[in-house]
Amino acid sequence: MKEINKDIAQDEINRANVLASRIESLITEARTKVVSFVNTAMVYTYFEIGRMIVEDEQGGEERAEYGKNILKKISAHLTGKFGKGFSVDNLQNMRNFYRCYSKYETVSSISSDNRCVPQFNLSWSHYLKLMRITDIAERKFYEIEATQNHWSLRELERQFDSSLYERLSLSRNKEEILQLSKKGQIVEKPQDLLKDPYILEFTGLPELPNYSENALEQKIIDHLQAFLLELGKGFTFVGRQVRITFDEEHYFIDLVFYNRLLQAFVLIDLKKGKLKHQDIGQMQMYVNYYDREVKLESENPTIGLLLCADKTEAVVEYSLPLNNNQIFASKYQTVLPSKEQLKKILMEK
Fold this sequence. Notes:
The protein is of the alpha/beta class. Helix content is about 55%, strand content about 15%. It is built from 13 helices and 8 strands. Strands 3-8-7-6-5-4 form a 6-stranded mixed β-sheet. It has a two-stranded antiparallel sheet with strand order 1-2. Strand 7 (about 305-310), helix 12 (about 315-320) and strand 8 form a beta-alpha-beta unit. Helix 5 (about 135-150) packs across helix 8 (about 175-185) and helix 7 packs parallel to helix 13.
C-alpha cells in the first residue's frame, strides 16, 4: 500500500511539474507578445509624430528656425507630460524616420484615417540603426534579415559592421543582388549559402596567421553561436573532428554541420595558409564518403566548404569539375573588413 501511495504521490509531483512548466511557457510567451506589441506600437507612434512634425514644418513660413524653436517647445511639453524619450534629438529622429520610411515602395498597413504607412516589425533602436544606412537597397536587406532572423540590435550592428550585404553581393550577379533588397537572403541552392570572405572577428584572433588551425577551430567552438550566425540560415551543429575510416586509415573532418533548408550535410575544413589543390582533393573525398555512406536517400548531396586565409581562383577552378555545385572555397578574416574596400570591389563587378 505504501508503495502505491508513493507512486501516486510521485505521479502527482510529475503532473504538477509538467503543468507548471506549460503554464510558465504560456506566461512567458504572453509577456513576450506584450513587450513586442508595446515596442511595435511605440514605433508606429513615433512614425506618426514624425509625420505631424514634417507636415507642420512644410506648412510653416520660417522653416530654418523650426528645429530651434518649435521642437524645443514640443520637447518641453511632452517631457513634462510623459518623461524621457522626447528630447529635441529624438524628435528629430522621428522626423527623419518619417521622411525615410514614408518613401518606401511597399506599404502594407492602413492607418485609422485611411493613410498608407509601412509595416514595422522591429524595435525603435533597430530603426535608429537602419536609418543611418544611406543605400536604400542595403537598408531594405538588413531590415528584412533582422525581421526574419529575429536579430537583436547587437546582431544587426555586427552583421552591418561585417559588411554582410557586400559579402553576399560579391558572390551574386546583378539580378541576384537586386533580389537581396526585395526578399533578403533566399537559400535554395548551395551557392546561396556562400560568402566571401567569412568574418570571424568574434574569435579574437589577430589578422596575421600566427596561430594554428587547431587554435582557430577551438575558438570557433568556443563561439559556436556566433559562428552559426555567420554561416547563415538553417545551420545546425553536428560535430568537430568527425572521424571517417576506410582501408584501416582514419581521417578527421574539422567541422560538420547540417543545413535544414537545403537538407544537406555541410563539411568545413579550415586552412590557415593558402589553399592547395590537395586540400580540394581531400574535401572531395570527404564529400564522396558522406554522399555514399552517411546521407539518407531523401537528403540532398553533401556540401564541402574550405575556409582558407588565402586562395587562387585558378587553383579552385581547375581542381574541381565543370558545373561544380558541391565544393566551394572562401576566404576568412579574423578582423572586420573595410566596407569601402568591399563596395569598391562590388562596383567593379
